[in-house]
Design a protein that fits this description.
26% helix; globular; single chain; five-stranded mixed β-sheet; binds coenzyme A; Aminopeptidase; alpha+beta; disordered C terminus
C-alpha cells in the first residue's frame, strides 16, 4: 500500500553492481615507455628514509638493470592508460643445484588503488611466469616492519619466514678511506647495482656453497 502524502514509492531500480577494479586493470609485460611512470611510483613507495634497512635501493639504475636483463619477468598493471602497479622479478639458479627459484624483487601498487586486488593480480601472473620458466619456489623479502607487505605475502601463501640481519660499519673514519678520499681520482667510478646476484639463503634447501 502506498503512502497518500508522499505518493507511491518509486520502484527500486536494481543498482548496477560496481565492477571490481581489478577487472579494469590489465597486467602485461613491461615496455620501455613504462620506465618513467614505474620509476616515479617506486620513488613514492620506496623512499630511502622510510625503509633505510632495505639493502636494495630504488633508483633509475635498479630499474634500468632489471628492464635490460629481466624484462620477461617484469610486469606492469595498467588502468585507463596509467601505470598503477608493477612487479619486478628474476630467475635464480643455484650452483650445484637443480632448483630454480623465482625471486620477486620489487612489488608496488599505487595507494589510490590499494586493497583492490592489483598486487594479487600481478603476483598471480608472476607466479605463472615463474612456473613456465621452471621455478620450483618463489622467494620474496621485505623489511620486518613492512606490515602491509607481510600481510600481502602471507595472504598469498608465503611462510617459512627467516629473519635476516643486515649490519653496517661506518668507514668514513677508516685511515684507508681517508687516504683514498684525499688521493686524486683516476677516473669517475661507476656505480654497481645494489642488488645481489642471488640472495644469501634459499629456504627449504641445504646451502651448497
Ligand atoms: C603491499 C602492496 C603491494 C599490496 O598491494 P595491494 O594491491 O593493495 O594488495 P591487494 O589488494 O592485492 O591485497 C591482497 C591481500 O593482501 C593483504 N593486504 C594487502 N595490503 C594490506 C594492508 N595494507 N593491510 C593488511 N593486509 C593487506 C590482504 O589480505 C588483501 O586481501 P583483502 O584486501 O581482501 O583483505 C602495496 O601495499 C604496496 O605497494 N606497498 C608499498 C610497496 C611495498 O612494500 N612492496 C612490497 C615489498 S617489495
Amino acid at each position: 500500500m502506498g503512502f497518500p502524502f508522499f505518493g507511491n514509492p518509486m520502484p527500486r531500480q536494481a543498482k548496477p553492481k560496481p565492477r571490481p577494479i581489478t577487472e579494469s586493470v590489465t597486467i602485461r609485460e613491461i615496455s620501455l615507455l613504462d620506465l618513467p611512470p614505474i620509476f616515479a611510483l617506486g620513488e613514492r613507495l620506496f623512499p630511502a628514509d622510510k625503509w633505510p634497512a632495505l639493502y636494495r635501493t630504488w633508483d633509475e639504475y635498479e630499474l634500468a638493470v632489471h628492464f635490460a636483463s629481466d624484462s620477461e619477468t617484469c610486469l606492469v598493471a595498467e588502468m585507463d592508460g596509467q601505470v598503477v602497479g608493477f612487479a619486478l622479478g628474476t630467475l635464480l639458479e643455484k650452483r650445484m643445484s637443480s632448483w630454480t627459484y623465482g625471486y620477486l624483487l620489487w612489488l608496488g601498487v599505487d595507494p589510490d588503488v590499494a586493497r583492490k586486488g592489483v598486487a594479487a593480480r600481478l603476483f598471480e601472473r608472476m607466479t605463472d611466469l615463474f612456473i613456465k620458466l621452471g621455478a620450483r619456489m618463489i622467494m620474496v623479502d621485505t623489511d620486518a616492519e613492512n606490515e602491509p607487505a607481510l600481510a600481502f605475502f602471507r595472504s598469498q601463501g608465503f611462510g617459512q619466514e627467516t629473519p635476516h640481519l643486515f649490519l653496517s660499519r661506518n668507514l668514513t673514519h677508516d685511515p684507508d678511506y681517508l687516504r683514498h678520499r684525499r688521493a686524486p681520482r683516476a677516473s669517475p667510478t661507476r656505480r654497481k647495482p645494489a642488488t645481489p646476484s642471488r640472495p644469501n639463503y634459499a629456504p627449504g634447501r641445504d646451502d651448497d656453497d
